[in-house]
Design goal:
Blueprint: H1 25-49, H2 55-75, H3 88-112, H4 118-125, H5 128-139, H6 146-164, H7 170-196, H8 202-216, H9 221-230, H10 233-260, H11 263-267, H12 272-285, H13 291-315
Length: about 325
């Protein structure tokens, strides 16, 4: 029986996943690595464009560019229309993760980066893998152990350190809360996308998600047009970059890997995002988080690593 992804006409029957014998495989690992690097760069582009584009208009621009870019390979398919899911369950799953992840998470993160630097935002959002582990335990019956709970406590302690390092200002505290909200939306979107990929292939899933997310944000179109008319060319380039690479290419690559890998295990790959984001924000924007913020981020990553190490042992 072939292992290729098949999208069945009308019936919307589950798309068979490729068997996992020795892990995600080279192709899935490369896809996940591509997504991680591109998502890390997104924190820097968002921070750079933030002073000129408001959070919702920036998210709208990002999703519109991504939807247009993904329309090219989608419409090039002879069976493009037949790949669109028709069952209410499949459409509900796609719509839910589009609203939670592609629209909600993007707006929350854009807003958060008005209050915190790119590196700190990446560190806080990186709590998402831990939330995915808890969600996978509840929804997908993955093993939940005492060590996983210890890891959660350690990560929450790291969040507390980062919050205290903000100096107690209202704006910085709001940024921390928004980053945590973004992490929750990120994790929820991933947990919803996993079962959605049983009914739709990765490219179609992200294409539909970007379209739906853009439709949700359409009320901010007049504001986007106004802000783009006065924004520097560099900021417009930031928006186009966010749509083409972290969104269109990054989310498609991630969906490809997610279809072939356990959600909890794959989420562990995002541990590299804060380190890459901090490096890029230092080189490109001259932003270096405080020593306390770095310490808090390190504690967060240690807690997540403890939790995922346990999950890996349970899986083996």
């Amino acid at each position: 029986m072939t292992q290729e992804i098949r999208v069945h006409d009308l019936a919307d029957q589950p798309v068979p996943a490729a068997p996992r014998r020795f892990g995600p495989g080279a192709a899935s690992a490369l896809a996940a690595l591509t997504a991680v690097v591109l998502w890390a760069s997104a924190f820097v582009a968002i921070r750079d464009a933030g002073p000129h584009l408001s959070p919702a208009p920036m998210a709208l621009l990002r999703l519109v560019v991504a939807a247009l870019a993904l329309s090219v390979p989608m419409l090039a398919r002879r069976d493009a229309l037949r790949r669109i899911p028709r069952s209410p369950r499949a459409l509900l799953l796609v719509t839910t993760y589009a609203v939670l992840w592609l629209a909600g998470y993007t707006v929350a993160l854009n807003t958060a980066e008005l209050h915190v630097d790119a590196g700190t935002a990446a560190l806080l959002v990186n709590l998402a893998p831990l939330l995915v582990a808890f969600g996978a335990a509840a929804l997908f019956r993955e093993h939940l152990t005492r060590t996983l709970l210890i890891g959660a406590a350690v990560s929450l302690a790291g969040v507390g350190i980062i919050a205290l390092s903000s100096g107690g200002g209202h704006r910085d505290g709001l940024g921390v809360l928004l980053c945590i909200l973004a992490a929750v939306l990120y994790a929820a979107g991933m947990l919803v996308q996993k079962p959605a990929l049983r009914y739709v292939d990765p490219l179609t899933a992200i294409w539909l998600g970007c379209l739906i997310g853009a439709v949700v944000l359409l009320p901010w179109t007049p504001q986007l047009i106004t802000e783009l008319s006065t924004a520097p060319a560099r900021v417009v380039a930031d928006g186009i970059y966010l749509g083409l690479f972290p969104t269109a290419l990054g989310f498609t690559a991630w969906s490809y890997a997610l279809h072939r890998t356990d959600a909890g295990r794959l989420a562990a790959g995002t541990y590299a995002v804060p380190a890459i984001s901090i490096l890029l924000s230092w080189v490109l924007l001259g932003e270096v988080p405080t020593a306390w913020a770095l310490l808090g981020g390190t504690v967060c990553l240690i807690g997540v690593a403890i939790s995922r190490r346990t999950a890996g042992r349970a899986g083996r």
